[in-house]
Design a protein that fits this description.
This protein is of the alpha+beta class. Helix content is 49%, strand content 12%.
């Protein structure tokens, strides 16, 4: 009993400590304060915070799933960004076997619609995919794509459903879903994004360093607002997602390329930080007492049983609680048995003593009666000498 309690206490002591709050933040790779400070200085230096301007950034380090956002909940017209989640909806049908690249969709092979919509951002192809899915020209199937994010329904505004307005947070999560699903869940989508805009947007600063699967969007609204966006998977050693959405920002491609270059370099810092953390954890584990190791058991081939020999019935597993109760009963059974034996012996001795006392009283009564009888009759009783045989009749 006490051994089991001690073993349980030792096991609890060796369990890893669950970290919450500040402790959990200490384990995060992304230094949000560092990125916030850099972004604030960059925005001020390039005058990106003027009236009617918007500059939103989303960043995801896929190695841990950690994210960082700057002003990422500003709703802006998506322009051609919508073609990515719409193409993902169609690609899922291909993954399920409902379609193939050669399948006729609205009179053309699916391959044509997807490649021209994603690689060259052809608007007619994008609209054809929306029509095939049963969406509307303005809504762009937005309601169908919420499941590509972890955002609650309450996050989305009416402009999202009716006019295809996106945020950097939404688009970053869509691109992360695309990367994680890959070819198995979304066949050909990344394939068609890799050659897009080879000399523009993030490729201005990164094309000689990393591969990119990027989708741009550009649209000037009737009210004069100029929307220019980019969302990309950047294939650093550990890929990252970078989204930059802008409104009324001059030299927007240069700004996007500079932000993309900084975040790609930061991804390399995160890789180094992750390696150092993994090495520290491995060293800490190496200093801990090794767990008890059971000797390897050599598998023994079961011997064939004669056909006439019946197989024994399987012994049912005994629940651990029942085993504990049985051991507890066995522990107390021996002392209880000894006490019972002692009580039974005492009672036996008391009974034998009582019988002897009653027999002695009867003998005394017989002798007293004999003496009384002798006095009354005057007869002399014969005396039995020691060792003399006096049979009874």
């Amino acid at each position: 009993m006490w051994k089991r309690i001690a073993a349980a206490a030792l096991g609890l002591a060796l369990l890893p400590v669950w970290k919450t709050g500040a402790d959990a933040q200490d384990d995060a790779l992304i230094d949000a304060d560092k990125l916030d400070q850099w972004m604030a200085e960059y925005v001020q230096e390039n005058a990106l915070d003027r009236d009617y301007q918007r500059f939103s950034v989303g960043f995801c380090y896929t190695g841990t799933g950690e994210t960082w956002y700057y002003d990422a909940d500003q709703w802006m017209y998506s322009a051609s960004l919508y073609k990515v989640p719409v193409a993902m909806l169609v690609a899922e049908k291909e993954a399920a076997g409902e379609l193939s690249q050669e399948s006729a969709v609205l009179g053309m092979p699916l391959q044509y619609w997807e490649s021209t919509a994603l690689t060259y951002s052809n608007n007619d192809s994008g609209h054809a995919l929306v029509d095939y899915l049963g969406g509307t020209y303005l809504g762009k199937c937005s309601d169908m794509t919420i499941r590509y994010t972890q955002l609650a329904d309450s996050y989305f505004v009416e402009d999202f459903y009716q006019s295809s307005y996106y945020t950097a947070r939404y688009m970053t999560q869509v691109m992360e879903t695309l990367w994680r699903g890959g070819e198995e869940q979304f066949p050909h989508i990344i394939e068609y994004l890799l050659p897009a805009q080879p000399d523009a947007y993030l490729n201005l600063s990164l094309k000689d360093r990393f591969s990119l699967a990027q989708k741009y969007g550009a649209y000037e609204e009737p009210n004069g607002n100029k929307n220019n966006h980019i969302a990309a998977i950047v294939y650093t050693p550990t890929p990252v997602i970078i989204t930059v959405m802008t409104r009324n920002v001059g030299d927007y491609q240069d700004r996007m390329a500079e932000v993309g270059a900084y975040l790609a370099d930061y991804a390399l810092e995160l890789d180094a930080k992750a390696e150092a953390l993994a090495a520290a954890q491995a060293a800490a584990q190496a200093t801990q007492p090794p767990e008890s190791q059971l000797p390897e058991q050599t598998a023994v081939a079961p011997q064939a049983q004669p056909e006439e020999t019946p197989m024994p019935e399987p012994v049912p597993d005994v629940p651990e609680q029942d085993v504990s109760e049985e051991r507890e009963i066995q522990r107390w059974l021996l002392p209880a048995g000894l006490i019972g034996v002692l009580l039974l012996g005492a009672m036996t001795l008391m009974a034998l003593g009582g019988r002897r006392r009653r027999a002695a009283r009867r003998r005394a009564q017989v002798r007293a009666y004999a003496r009384t009888r002798q006095k009354q009759t005057g007869e002399e009783q014969p005396q039995q000498r020691r060792g003399e045989y006096n049979p009874r009749h």
